[in-house]
Fold:
Amino acid sequence: MIYKLFRAAEWAAARAECRFTGSPADLKDGFIHFSTAAQAAETAAKHFAGERRLVLAEIDPDRLASPLKWEPSRGGALFPHLYGALPLGAVVRTWVLALGPDGRHAFPPGLR
Structure:
């Protein structure tokens, strides 16, 4: 599984369209950014610090219309990128992430 972090308004728009074509950062870079389970919390801390009502979506890569590309990013770590729209049929679960007392997002067990 791979993971995508959405601001509340982005998630609402994606649900209305039944697909997601990208956040402003995704559109700027030309692909949709995803994280692995091990990378999601660091991605939230780096790019979504303090963001309330952040939505974490779990995506089944086998349900994507376009293949993923694993490309280096932070410190050479490989991140999954999608060059195409994300069909919402590929989303298998979502969580709304609360901010913990330390100001970091509280992730579900197994995704910390």
